[in-house]
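Instructor's aside before we start: the two examples that follow are unrelated to each other. I chose them only because their records fit on one page, so don't look for a connection. First example below.
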Amino acid sequence: MEKKSEKKSFFEKLATLIVDKRNLIFFIYIAALIFSVFSRNWVSVCNELTDYLPEDTETRRGLTAMEEELVTYGTARIMVSNVTWEAADYLAGEIEEVDGVSSVEFDRTEEHFKQTDALFDVSFSGEADEEISLEAMSEIKAIMEPFDTYIDSEVGESLASTLDSEMGMIMVIAVVIIVLVLLLTSGSYAEVPVLLLTFGAAALLNMGTNFLFGEISFVSNSVSVILQLALAIDYAIILLHRFIEEKEEHDTREACIIALSSAIPAISASSLTTISGLAAMMFMQFRIGYDLGIVLIKAILLSMLSVFTLMPGLLMLFAKPIEKTAHKKFLPEINLWGKFVVKTRYIGVPAFLAVMVAGFFISQDCPYAYSQTSITTSRQNESQIAKAKINDTFGEQNVMALLVPKGDYEKEQALLKRLENYDEVNYAMGLANVEAIDGYMLTDGLTPRQFSEMADVDYELAELLYAAYAAHNDEYGKIVGGLDSYSIPLMDIFFFLYDQKEEGYVTLDDDLNEDLNDMYWQLSDAKAQMMGENYSRMVIDLNLAEEGEETFAFLNTIHREAEQYYDADEILLVGNSTSAYDLSTSFARDNIIISVVSVVLVVAVLLITFQSVGLPILLILVIEGSIWINFSFPALQDKPVFFMSYLIVSSIQMGANIDYAIVISNWYSTFKKTMSRKDAVIKTLNMSFPTIVTSGTILVSAAFLIGKLSTEPSIVGIGECLCRGTAISMVLVMLILPQILMLGDWLVEKTSFSLKKPDISIHHEIRTLYVDGRVRGRLSGVVDADIHGYISGDVSGVAINGSNFLQKGDNNYEDQEEE
């Protein structure tokens, strides 16, 4: 029997190796962290949510087609206030002279001038991220600096740098709050640096390994570090508490080994619910869920790795300072709260069930937003302030791009005319209705006579040009049948004339040559923006909001009009409104998937953990109830929630907040075996309070900061909803869950089952041991009897059957197994 008790388990061997090789591990971590400082800049960050739409959505297909075939030049809406029309007209001229600016639209109409406010619609000569556009924007800002100016443009705006700045500020404040929380809940001041060093290393390693994914979203890049810290702080606290407990009976090395060997399986099991909730996001059709899910799962795994490998060495290093800086507990006993919970159980549970049912129905009416412009954030950056000011003064812009098969200018012209007849359309523009010269549109067909009159060239020269064009395009029948009625689109004949001139076949006088060159560059710009290899692009400006039933209905109207001229599968409508429509469509599916998958995965973990069917149902009931109550608030306030925030937060609540419920359930299941259910609830709340307050407060604080200090609507929504949801979960598990466990005990007992386990070895340790079953071993002699009660002393034995619970005082130490 003694040989058996001396035999070390796998986790003990692993813990011994980690503790004894701590200096080597320190070296490896230092090298890895230095590497991560540089590698964290290698990851590519995607700033567009539309890039994560499913490939078969209309928006994604349309954006891909435009990226491959068309050029989209940068634009800007620039408003200047408190100016006269003359001063504004002068400024428009100044802006138009800037190198890199292709055009400035400004006139006396209310679209561009109202009272003392002027609006310039600026187009650049390059795309939004090209150097020519960036330099032009810098020069424009210098010109407008003396004036009260507001600029709404994607040119020169970096979402990544804005978020980096915001998250840096949030991280600093979060760390201060976390330090204060840890000081309040810790038993020694020196515990805090151990926890911070452990998670600082985990956070840096996570950032430094993101490059392995190639590209991550701006959402993952921004919030993953803060959420990692908030979600995984429990792991370090578990190991720390176990080390402090073992230190009372063993030397530092032995205490660290024992604590680590028991913490590895416990922490690994605890992480499964969190990972399950995050994994549910990876099933989303909207692939940003996969992106955030995999980044956060990696963060959780690296946090556990740091706790298992780095933290033991830090505990060895800080062991003496931890002893010297020990202080009294700041958190009070909450016996009165426990008694209140017990006495109100017949009121609390029915009230919760009523609120939960109401929350379910109210949350179904939660107003979801699919466009970020529909969300108002607590704090706004300079660009958001400018956009809001311009929209309030001159109205919002909702510009759509309609892609149709290229080549048939008559169909395009007819479609544009029909679209312009709708009241919902401010204008519809394409190559077929853009005027070129003397009332002719770019795609109007011209005969040789019309071309000679328009271009002011000899008719004979025009005929020669048309004959050359026909021969070039193998249309010899036109030459034989006569060229008088031969019609060629204006744009095409000008391009052909320019090519012939460049090749030396045509010689023009200086004035005509200059006019042709100017016309060529204008036509080239127009063609690059409006016509690709397979598609022609039309631009439609709507006077509708970016999202809403009316807007979505009109998108179908545009499709119906286009389908009169083209096949339905050849038409692509792209813009913020179609993006919102596609996101709303994918949300319906993703909502069901996340709800089902997260519950199934978490229930599976709970079934194995508690070996009861009833207990997981009770725990899920509380957490699911907290989710419904959480998203009832936006419905009652009529405040839109960005759809992505709901999907992500509901997953995190189910996966992470369930840990609070598990803590309560574990303690209650243990204490009810040795005391009355009422006393078990009171004792459970006392034991759980520090853990739930520490973890919950940190997560609530981090989420609150994200919600209040970030300006990115999609990220703000995650912060606001997670803050509120976690706070609700904390209240429910500290108030309603114990009451449900008391009243639902019969269900838990009737649905319990057992899994066969091997004999349990009890190692030679001095502790308090509760036994319920048959024990054979030595206690200052030999015992072989059925024992029901506590044994205090030096115990060495084997539990033949029954269960055992090892505990020392009120420390958070638990080891319960059954055969």
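Example two begins here.
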Amino acid sequence: MDPTPPDTMTGLTSGEVAVRVEQGRTNAVVSVTSRSLSQIVKANVFTRFNALLGALFVLVLLTGSYIDGLFGLALIANSVLGIGQEWYAKHKLDSLAVLHTPRATVIRDGDRITIDVGAVVQDDLVCLRPGDQVPADGPLVSADNLEVDESNLTGESDAVDKAVADEVFSGTAVVAGTGVFRAAVVGEEATAQKLSRQAKVFTRAYSEVQASTNRLLRWITWVVVVMFPVALVAQWRGLPDGSWAQVVADWRTIVLRSAGGLVALVPEGLVLLTTLAFLLAALQLTRQQALVQELPAIEGLARVDVICVDKTGTLTQGEIVYDRCQVLDGHGEAEALDALGAFAHDPVPNATALAIATRVPPSAHEVVARVPFSSARKFSGATLDDGQGWIFGAPEIVAPHDEALRAEVAPLAADGVRVVVLAKVDALQDWGQVTPVAIVQLNEAVRPDAAETLAYFASQDVTVKVISGDNPVTVAAVARRVGLAVEGDQGPHGSDSSSAVVDARALPDSVEELAEIVEGITVFGRVTPEKKRLIVNALKSRGHTVAMTGDGVNDVLALKDADIGIAMGNGAPATKAVAQIVLLDSCFSHMPMVLAEGRRLIGNVERVASLFVSKNVMAACLLISTAILGVAFPFLPRHLTLYSVLTIGIPAAILALGPNKRKYVPGFLFRVLSLSIPAGVAAGMAAFVAFAFLRGTPAQASTLALVVLFVVNFWLLGVLARPWLWWKVATIVAMVGVAFCAFFFQPARVFFDLSLPVGQWPLALIIGGCGALVVEVAHQVRRAYSLRSPVRQHDAELASVADHGGTPSISTP
């Protein structure tokens, strides 16, 4: 217990502050904006892909053939790109945190001084003015028409009137009036920090592409473990005499050819291309003020079918605006507006007065007496220099028995309009005759781009649900104003599950029960932070991919549990820390562009993934065939590097940047395997036939087998590039030209160890053509199956339109 309580007039002394600082009773907290650098490096370096490819890379380097270790560059590039993007996002958020470091005014030694909020100590007297953030929790010792916006904690946009002895909480903001409070609870124990602490365990966004790739890598890991000794034995058996002396002499060749087959089993290009595609998309989005903190979040948003939005800060601008002054029959507009100006330009205005003052000029009369507004009275009063008294307040307070006025006000209130009545009175202390003169209407300021943004989501079959701490009627009115279809408005204690609008206090507190009714609800009002979290998890339990937007500390728990969390740039630091995407300028209209970019990315990655996986299938076929027949593996690692770069890597990178409007359809891995398996088998068996049965030296046999691979894979590339636009044809022609130079240009032939016998290459082309025919048949069968579904047919049509239409046309309000 403090030996000396703070003096309410002079505040703490310098000595008392020093004691509290020494005891650690300060408001300083560790602000976590994202994962630490060590966590970022660990997550991007210690992966299954890096372990597989890294082991093979070291094995090749031990042979001294550094040219054959070129595939290791993919390992390094993948880690560097992932670390770089997440570190860039972290640096950006750290910069924003520094830029928006709040300050507080405290009373110490009788003087008012401004300090960082982290320097506030327990029992400090903190001064509050409009626009200030409340830095700690504590009771008010002074209050003058003080109104506090607690939406950051509760989600309710209505300002709360505060009087002496009322508690104020960290994370809230002063919108009107002044006050002084004692900082009773500071630092990690303050309300905002308690909510933030529940979200400090970072979760990664789920990526179907990465999950499918990781599943492939798990399978491939076991294949590599099994095939490594098999490959070594096969290469040993492929030696001319197989003696130990020759094994010792040719161990480098055995290791290199074994590693060549095993490296081809690892889809290093797919992992690298996915990372690169994510990175380029993230950079594009950053230029549009959407900061991607986790690369998989771009793809995740493409899978979203439900987006939960907070009303305050997302659909609305978080402030009220003056709409109109409806003068009642028998009264003059000029007189009403003049009296309204006296209230609007109050020396200590509240939020309502500030909104009216933007459009109503000051009164021509001087105010000789005032009754300030208070939450207890729910009205304010003024007497002008002409002797006329006026009151301005809630209809039920100003004229509780006026049935005609109630009939005028009721439909407005039902539509969520905020109504205040201006009336004449005989005197401020004793009203006497009360004569209502005008009905003043105010609304929440709706973002001008909200309606068009929500219309875009509806066109993309994304369901929008509004979750707010406000009154359900008010939230429903805002939802209608932005174009959402809302029906079945419900009272505060209703529980009709078929209603599109509900008071969340009536909803069950278990995910299982809530999941049964959440589908049919569009607007949720009176939602607590924990109930937001339950709603998100209930939707996820029904198989939905859920995105959640928010800006306040009250949104942190729901953002963390959502599949994709989207924070506003002007939101709380804790909110931005747990979100995967941060809208830097707090503009919700960027969301259609983010969604479209995600769908373009996942559609294009799926388009080219068959190229990479077919190579893995091809390698498995060759390893098995060579092991059974006891012949050497046909290729060196450098052969497969050339083949991968020209038929897979470069073309795939170009195709992945093209337009694609196709909506997300589950089943990425199945669709990829349905083409890559037959294509890989065809390429592998055709290459093995050329290697095993065409005559020539071992180097010539390898070269002929490589020709076959090029023929089959260029055909597969042509299949995946359909419809053939000029830039796609140009890409394929360029790759064929480079491959031709590699086979016939002497320095390239030496570098890649190629030897093409003149009389055998036509036969290699024929064998390759047979493999290409198998690929074409597999593609036609797969296409016929896909078009059997109306949904898939629609998606195929969209993909075709995107291919022919250049850049996707995205409505960005």
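The radius of gyration is 35 Å.
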